[in-house]
Amino acid sequence: MLIDILHRSRDAIIAAGRQHGAQRIRVFGSVVRGEERPDSDIDFLVDFAPGYDLFAQRLPLAERLAEFTGRRVDLVPEHELNPYLRRYVLEEAIDL
Asked: In what order do the strands lie in the sheet with 94-95?
């Protein structure tokens, strides 16, 4: 399962996150539920410090995570979560 690969890559993922200003990285969505398909993306929930830079931090981190996993990545800062989905995402999200 893909979640096992993420756990094995945990240290590299966290190091990349810190390098790009992430304070916390979690995974949610189909990967956590064990419902991923070969074409599924990986949903990462990331806590950035206030005032983070989209181009200097978020986009490069998404690219690094895609390189580590070989998958498309959806990187969502927690403060940008849809209010209607927030509770479900936070309940489902797991730390790496």
From this structure: 73-77, 42-48, 22-28, 94-95
